[in-house]
Specification:
about 350 residues, mainly alpha, two-stranded antiparallel ribbon, 12 helices, globular
Amino acid sequence: MPALSIDLPTIWFVLIGVLIAGYVVLDGFDLGAGVLHVFVARTDRERRTVLNSIGPVWDGNEVWLLTAGGALFAAFPIVYATVFSGFYLALIVLLLALIIRAVALEFRSRETYPGWRSAWDVAFAISSFLPALLLGVAIGNVVRGIPLEASGDYTGGLLGLLNPFSLVVGLLAVAVLTAHGGAWLALKTTGDVQARARMAATWAWLGAVGLWIVAGGVRFIEAGEIELGSLAIGVIFIAATGSFRLLLGRPNRELAAFLASAVSLAALIGLVGGAIYPNLVPALGEPSRSLTIAGAASSELSLSVMLGIALIGMPLVIAYTGAIYWHFRGKTVVDEEHGY
C-alpha cells in the first residue's frame, strides 16, 4: 500500500491564509469602528461607548497579524524576506499607525479637556484608516504581481506599489472594513449611535460594491482578464455580502449581519488565495520569477514540526479568543469611572 503523501507547503499556504483571514475578520471590525467613531459618536460619552466596545479585544485581535507574520517567516522565509524588504517603507508606516492607535486609546482618558480628547479621537481615526488602506494596497499588489529580479528581490520602490489597481483595492479594503466596523457597532451599541452605525455601514457597503466593480475593470484593463478564483468561494462571498446588506436593516438581526460580514471577509481572503495559488508572490511581467509555495518553502522537517505545534496551539488560541468574546458579550455600557 503506497504511503500517504502530504503536501506540507500547500497546508501551510492554507494555514497562513486562515491566520490572515482571522486577522481581517477580528481586527477588521475594530479598525472599521475606529474609522467611524468620530462620525457616529458625537458626544464624549458616545465616543467612550464606541471605544469601550472594542477596548477588551483590540490588542488580542492584532496577535493574529503577528502570528501570520511569524508563520510566514518560518514556513516561507524567502517570501518573508522579499515582502518585508520590498514593502519596508509601507510596513514602517503601518507599524507607526498601529503604535499611534494604541497610544491614542490609552492616552485619551488621561485628561478631561475636550481639545485633548478630540485630538486623540482624530489620531485614532486616522491611525485606524491607514492600516486598512495599506493592507488593501499590499493585497492588491500581491494579486497584480510585483516586479522581481531573478534572485527574488523586489525591484520597485514605494511609488511602484501605488499603482491604480492596488490603490482601488486599498480603498475597497477601507470600505469593507468600515462596513464591518459599522456592523460591530450596531451589535454593541443602542440608540443614536446604533442608528448612525447602521447608516454608515450601509453607505460603506454601497461604496465597497462600487469599488469592487472598479477594481475588476482596472484589473481587466491591465491584465486582459478577470480572475474568478474558486467558484464555490465566490458563491459564498456573494451570498454573504448580499445577506449582510439584507440583515443590516432588520431589527434584532445585528449578530446575524455581523456574522455575514465576517463570512464575506473570510471568503474574500479565500478568493485572493485562489487567485495567486500556487504562487505566494506572483512576478509582474515575468511569471517564471514568481515565488511559488513549493520553491519558497522551508524544509519538510521544519514544516512538519511547525504543523504539529500549530495543531496544538491554534485550537487553544481559538478557544481563548472565543472565551474572551463570550465574556464581553452584550451591549457596551459606560459609567463615569470606567471607559476611554
